[in-house]
Write a structure and sequence with these properties.
With 71 residues, this protein is mainly beta. Helix content is 6%, strand content 52%. The protein is globular and about 35 Å long.
Length: 71
């Protein structure tokens, strides 16, 4: 599974910059490393399992991608 670097829009409206794919050191699970492109007091950088990054979520009764690539 490969997720391209670039700018992505989260379904809640915030933008993130995907830096690249990384591996979990214990499980070898594919993770996505990304950066918040807005002020976030919790953290600037995040990781999420790749399959979760690509999944669809239910919003107002309709399925939509959790993250949509913009650029």
């Amino acid at each position: 599974m490969e997720i391209e670097p670039g700018i992505y829009l989260h379904f809640k409206g915030n933008k993130y910059k995907v830096i690249g794919m990384v591996k979990h050191s214990e499980t070898n699970e594919d993770l996505v490393l990304y950066e918040a492109l807005y002020e976030n007091p919790t953290s600037k950088f995040w990781v999420r399992p790749a399959n979760m990054f690509l999944e669809e979520v239910l919003v107002n009764g309709e399925k939509t991608l959790r993250f949509k690539k913009l650029l």
